[in-house]
Task: structure prediction
Amino acid sequence: MTRPRGDRSADPPPVDRMCALAGVSRAAYYRQWSLSAPLREETALRDEIQRLALANRFYGYRRIGALLRREGWSVNHKRLVRMMRDDNLLCLRKPLFKPPTTDSRHHWPLWPNLARHVRTMAVNQLWVADITYVRLAECFTYLAVVLDAHSRKVVGWAMADHLRASLALDALTMALDTREVFVGGLIHHSDRGTQYACGDYVERLQAAGIQPSMSRGGCPYDNAMAESFMKTLKKEEVDGSAYRDLEHAKSAIGAFIEDVYNPHRLHSALAYRSPVEFEKTQPSMTP
Result:
């Protein structure tokens, strides 16, 4: 029988003593137990899965399983998949149309990919940046983000109804205002879009002592970590919402980033911890 570990109140008294007090045989006790106890356990586990799945609408069975383990349950992943399938705990589908957000046809200098073989040992060693679209009722708006590659935490973000360089600069400014950067100790990686290659953006990076890095041409996997965050954002927040206007989208997406993703969203790469939780375990680094 599966029950939360540490729940001593659920432990029955010794079977021999219980049978003697009730005046029944051990065989009769176990027959009755096999008819009722597994059903009670199944109901309690299903109730817990439903609660976690409703609170985390876009979690798959792996993250639901991690949450169950945190609650003290021990359940086989095949059983968990079956129960979630039976209860129709499905994810939302993605829209098909995707407007372009990257224009690499420009005259600005391109920087080599310095992040390709970097293995971070602490926060603020590698940042990754990207821009995506957000669908409104009658038009599109755009979101720029900066993530710390070590902890997956969103350290800067901004939204606007345009794709000018100021959008990316606003996200970078937030990141610089909230993180401690050591000169020469941080790489900023992005795609080859004009927002990141333009003089204003590169000058802001160099003024802070940050080394620019860009993906290779035609290789989106070079910025896979930022792309992964955008996929998570679309799946767990944007695709299930209908935003009235830019301010509504900014409020909802900001709440998702600051109140859900950073402090609570579990990452398999972080041993199923959230970015904030993971950073608390990291030693402070000095130059």
Remarks:
- The CA atoms of residues 46 and 83 lie 7 Å apart.
- The chain is about 45% helix and 15% strand.
- The chain has two domains: 8-86, 126-280.
- The first helix runs from residue 15 to 22.
